[in-house]
Amino acid sequence: MKILILGAKGMLGQELVRVFSDHEVLAWDREDCNICDFEKAREKIISTTPSLIINCAAYNNVDMAEGEGREICFKLNAEAPANLARVAKELGASFVQYSSDYVFGGTKETGYTEDDPLDPISEYGKSKAEGERLLGEIGGKIYIIRPSRIFGVKGSGEGVKESFVDLMIRLSAEKNEFDMVDSELTSPTYAPDLALRTREIVENHPPGIYHGAQDGACTWYSFAQEIFRLIDREDIKLNPVGSDFYPRPAKRPVCSVLINTKLPPARSWQEALAEYLRDC
Predict the structure, then answer these.
(1) Which of 23, 24, 88, 243 is the most buried (most CB within 10 A)?
(2) Which residues are catalytic, by number?
(3) pLDDT means over runs of 10, the chain (280 residues)
(4) Structural domains of the chain, with CATH
(5) Burial of 154 (0-12, 13-18, 19+ CB in 10 A)
């Protein structure tokens, strides 16, 4: 099977290239295909005739999206995926798009299932929700997978950000006390596990919406606690604070735990984190 992976140099994209390495993989990043230039992107994709298109390219600067980044945010997270889905439908190919837990407002304390109604509270969340809506209208063999707080080996592409895990480890070399937000409960996602989950979904399950995060949930505070415990940094002092301690342009969901009802249980975020820290 010929598989096109867009955003192949990102944290998730590089893992997908590895997971599908026994197939013919076209690993494209922004220098290979500008998905915001629809006509040129369509022409290039059509010429390669992939059977599966996986889009990892996205805009994820949540706060910038509240202002000057809003236009490109909606273009990358809604309009471009919709155009890619149309190309996939034209080819008869399957299409995978990654969404976000931020499509939910965070008022449901028990967490959110795949079929819960969307109620985003930020422009970033709205862009992801709009992308999901457009894909639903287009139809075809579309898989929407929602992760949250992805961590793993940093990608090599231009502008790729480090994960929260890597950020904490890097900053711990400079200081030993942090004020950490002890709210915004959600489910972290390990990039290698998400790549494997993606393959499992497209090979064994019908098109639809899936949750691809690890099992369990944590706040930023408890996430940091586990990171420093696993790297034996008992000298680090963490001070739990509320979300209002760090004023930010974009609102965040208080609880956006992704509940998986369609797939076998994922391993816990703690187990995945331990593997990452052991291997990195």
Answers:
(1) 88
(2) 124
(3) 97 98 97 95 97 97 97 98 98 98 97 98 98 97 98 89 95 96 96 98 98 98 98 96 94 97 97 94
(4) 1-280 (3.40.50.720)
(5) middle
